[in-house]
Amino acid sequence: MAENLQVSFWAKKEGEHGVFRYLIGCIGVVVAYISGQIPYLMSHGSTGQSSNEALALILLPFAVAGALLLLVVRFVHQLPPLRMATARPRADQDRLAFGFWVWLGLLAVPDLLGWWLQPEAYRLTFRPEHLPGLLLVALTLLFVQTTTEEYFFRGYLMQGLAKAGNRPWAAVMGSALVFGLLHLGNPEAAQYGRGIMLLYYVGFGLALSALTVLDQGAELAAGVHAATNFYGAVFVSYEGSALSTASLAQAASLEPARMTALALVSGAIFLALAKRRYGLPGLKAAWQELSQPIETGKHNY
């Protein structure tokens, strides 16, 4: 059912939104992320380190960057941290759960069919002794990682771009492009082709950014992103994945074109289900929402 929210997703009338403040925030996030990498760099190449320990160290920088970003929003932008990511007074747990479980199911269906029709395309990599540790990391730091990314790209960065461009579609496209470019550093981009992977990354970011604006909050997007990384880390991974884990199974190879096509189909199904459950706007209303000017507010530097 659609909500009658009293405020817009865009927080430009609240807090402080000067360009210099966003510059401070972005630089601070980069510095915090790099600082969080120190433990991983110090332990890289050490003998006896399990894949779960390596995964935890890889994800640690997101916890450091996320904590710093919350402080920036609170004290530099003078906003309650949640206000950057949703128009709701509190995070909607139902939306988070819906996004996670529905998207997890949509990810599983193609692999289950693929395993049945072409079992040689998968190999079991399940290691029971690694499962408890993997679940511990996946249910904590992995969720922190995806939440931090969503808070930054779908919240902080979009709010900043909205100040500069004053149009929702410009903020949506800008955040998606930055999201895609930063993910080009993932190992799979080099292995399977940067061009096709950039198309996938930008498309995924574009869908999540548009979903955030249309639903007036990043909860659904955060659930989808968490499900994507959780599925890849715990259930089915692939060679060259940015998250190298002892997952239950591994696909013989990643086919970017097939993955992009499946994402489009799954995305359409997800949007239809979300529209039915939460009253998301249709195509015409969605375009009006994305193209109308954003009311301006404070611009203190």
Automatic annotation (TrEMBL):
Question: Which UniProt keywords are listed?
Answer: Hydrolase, Membrane, Metalloprotease, Protease, Transmembrane, Transmembrane helix
Transmembrane residue ranges? 20-42, 54-76, 96-117, 129-148, 168-185, 197-214, 257-274
Q: Name the chain's protein.
A: CPBP family intramembrane metalloprotease
GO terms, molecular function: endopeptidase activity; metallopeptidase activity
Per the database record, which ranges form the CAAX prenyl protease 2/Lysostaphin resistance protein A-like domain?
134-230
- What lineage, starting at the top, does this entry show? Bacteria, Pseudomonadati, Bacteroidota, Saprospiria, Saprospirales
What organism does the UniProt record list as the source?
Answer: Phaeodactylibacter luteus
Tell me which Gene Ontology terms the entry assigns under biological process: CAAX-box protein maturation; proteolysis
Return the InterPro entries for the record: Rce1/LyrA-like_dom (IPR003675)
